[in-house]
C-alpha cells in the first residue's frame, strides 16, 4: 500500500464509495444522511466559497459548532483550499473565542455551517495539494485561560498515526464485508482531536458510517445504538460510566441487583461467548450488531472497563494527547491487556524518566504551539514531556498512573497519585463518583476526597474506611466531604475540572444551584434568591419549559430521568433529589409502539378496509364538503397536519378529506393514556372489559395508523416516533388541543404548548385542517348530516425557522387556525 502524503488522499477514496452513507446526523426528532459523494461535493463547494470570500492557503478559519456532516464538509473544504482550521468547542465563551481569533489572526469564523444543495458547484481550480509539513489545524487545549495554547498539527502528524492503523485494518477487511457497513456512534466533539480521529478519519478506512447525536442521555444512546444497528460507540470515560450506572439502575428497578452481581462474579472465568449468553438481555438492548466501546480523552476507570468486558463487550482505549495527534499507544481489539492503555504505535518512541513521566518522540508529535506573532514555538525531533506518569510491563503494555501536576507529595515525601485513591473509592458500592485533590492541612499538602453518594443515606464514612484498607499508609484518605451536586464540573470531553473543585472546596461555596442555572437559562428570568423549597411554578416553568429542562438536565448529568417522577416534582429541591436518585422512579406501564401496524400485509388490509368501509361510511354519514386541497399540490414531502378535535371520528374525516397520495402515508397521534390503558388495563379490571379494550386496540391499529401522544409524561418518545415517521416520508396528524373541544368551538380550548416544540423540531410545513359542523351533528344526536352541514377546510402550509421560539410557534398556529376561512 503506497504511503499517503497528505490527508487529501482520503478524498480520492470517498469518490470511489459514491452513494454509500458516510454520516448520519440525529438532530432532535429528525435524521439527516450524507453520502461519501455528497460530502466530497460539499467540501469542494465550501472550498470555492472560501476562495470567493478572499480566504487563501495558510489563512486561519475558526470552526465552531455541533458535530454534523456540515462540520466535516467545512473541515475538508478548508483542507482542499489549504486554509488552517481552528476548531473550537461549541460551549467556548465569547472571551475565549475572541482571544483565539486575535492570536491566530483568523480571517473568518464559521458557526454551525449550513449548505444549500441547490447552489451551483463551480469548477474553479483549487491550489496545488499541500505537502506533508503543511499545517492542517491549530487545536486549543484550554477553554478557560486568558492565554490559550494552540497546538499545531500538520498533515504528517495526523498521517503518522493513521498509517499504522490503516495497515492493520487492511488485514481484516476481507472479514469486514460480512458486517459492512461498520457503524460508529461518535459522542466526542469534533473540535477534539480524538473526536476527529474517530469521526473523520478511522471509520472511513473501512468505508464505515458515522452517526452523530447531541444527547448524552444513556437511554438515548442505547436506543440509537439498537435502532441504527451501531457496531462501535466512541465516547469519553464519563459517558461509559453513565451507561454502566444506567444498566445497574435498570437491574435494580427490576429487583435483580443480586442476580447482576452473581453473573458478574461468574463471568470472571468465562469466555466471551459464555459472557455474551449470560448477558444476552443487555446485548438485546444494545442490538445484536453492537460489540465494542472506544474510549478516549481521559483515563478510563478500571472497574468500568472490567464491568463491560464481563458483560461480553470489547473496550478499547488508547493513550495520547493533542500534541501527539491523538495517539501514542492503542489497544488492539483482539489482543488486549486488561487495565493497559495499549502498546506503542509503530513509528513512535517512548521512555519513562526517573520520576515515571512519559516522554514521547516521533512523526506524530506536533512541531509546537502557535504564537501571537504567527510563528510555531517548538523544537522538532526533541522528546515531548507529556506530564503524565506511566508504567511499562515486560510485554510493552503501557499503564497510566496519573497526571504529574496532580501528584500529591505527602508529609513523608512520597508521591500520592489521586487516580489510585479515586479507584479505591469508586469500587465501594456507596460511592457513585469521587475526585481527589490536594488541599493544605495540618501536615502540609494532603489528599482530600470530594464524594458523590450513589444513593441517599449512604454510609460514606464506612466506604472511606474500606477504601483505606486497600491503600498504603501514606495514601490514607483522612479528609473528605460529600459533593452537593449530581456531578463534578467537567470539560467538553467530560474530564473533571479539578481546579474548580479545589476552588469550591476552599471557599466552601460549591454551587448547589446548577439546576437553578439551567432553569434561569430556559426561562430567561433572573433569579438571585432561590432555595430548594422554591416552587417550580414560581420560576415560570410551564409544561413547555419542563420539557426543555428535563432534556437539559439529562444531557448535563448523563442520566435518564423518569418522566412521571419529573412531572410530579413541584420544587427545585425535589428535582435535585431526583437527580441524586433520592426519589424512586414510578413504576408505570410503557406506552405501546408496536411494529406490526407497519407490516406490508397490514398496510394492504388497511388500504382495502379504508376504501371498502371507512370512506363510503364517512361520505354517507357526513356528506362533507372539502375546500383547500389545492394547498397541498405544491408540497412534495411529508407535512405536519393539525386539526381541531370534536368527535372520536375526526381522524376518519381528515383521512377522507385528503388527496389519494396523502391518505396512506399518514400517522395519527392519539391520546396516549387511552391506548396504554387498552393494552395495559389498571389492576382489578374485569376480564370482559380487558378483552373489549384489547379488541379496540387491535382494531384501531388495523383501521388507522395511530401512535400514542400522552398528556402528562412520556411525550418525548412520542415526539421521537413522529420524527421517525417524517424521516420515512410519512406525514403526521396531531390534534393540538389535546382534548375534544366543548361545544366544538376552537376558542374554548387553547393549543397545548407541545405543538410548538414538535413543529420546530420536525422542520416540515404545518398544514391546518379545520373541521366544522360535527358538534352540531353530535348535539342533535343525528347520525346522517344534512347537505353542506359538515365542512373540512384545508389551510395554506405554514413554515417556521429553527430559531423561532416554540411558544411563539404555538401562538402563531392557534391564531392562524382561528382565522382560517
Structure description:
- The structure is a single chain.
- This protein is of the alpha/beta class.
- Among the domains are: about 100 residues, GMP Synthetase, Chain A, domain 3 (2-Layer Sandwich), CATH 3.30.300.30; about 70 residues, Orthogonal Bundle (Non-ribosomal Peptide Synthetase Peptidyl Carrier Protein, Chain A); about 220 residues, Glycerol-3-phosphate (1)-acyltransferase, CATH 3.40.1130.
- The chain contains 29 helices and 32 strands.
- The strands form seven sheets. A nine-stranded mixed beta sheet has the order 2-1-9-8-10-11-12-13-14, sandwiched between helices.
- The longest helix is centred in the last third of the chain and has 23 residues.
Task: Record the SSE blueprint.
Elements: H1 9-17, E1 21-27, E2 30-35, H2 36-52, E3 60-64, H3 69-81, E4 84-88, H4 94-104, E5 108-111, E6 135-140, E7 150-154, H5 155-170, H6 173-176, E8 183-186, H7 193-201, E9 209-213, H8 218-227, E10 232-235, H9 237-253, H10 257-266, H11 272-278, H12 280-286, E11 292-295, H13 302-310, E12 314-319, E13 329-330, E14 343-344, E15 348-352, E16 357-362, E17 368-370, E18 376-377, E19 384-392, E20 398-403, E21 408-409, E22 415-416, H14 418-426, E23 431-441, E24 444-453, H15 460-469, E25 479-482, H16 498-507, H17 514-523, H18 543-557, H19 563-568, H20 572-579, H21 600-622, E26 625-627, E27 640-643, H22 650-657, H23 660-663, E28 666-671, H24 672-679, H25 687-703, E29 706-709, H26 715-727, E30 731-734, H27 754-762, E31 766-772, H28 774-779, E32 791-794, H29 806-818
Helix pairs in contact: 1-2, 2-3, 17-18, 21-22, 24-25, 27-29
